[in-house]
Amino acid sequence: MTTERVFNKKLTRLDFKFGDINWEKATIKQYELEKDERIWRIFLNGYAKNGFVVFDEELLPREELLKALEELKPEVVGEKKLTVQELIDESMSWNNVYGKV
Question: How far is residue 80 from each of residues 53, 54, 77, measured CA to CA in Å?
Answer without folding.
Answer: 11, 9, 11
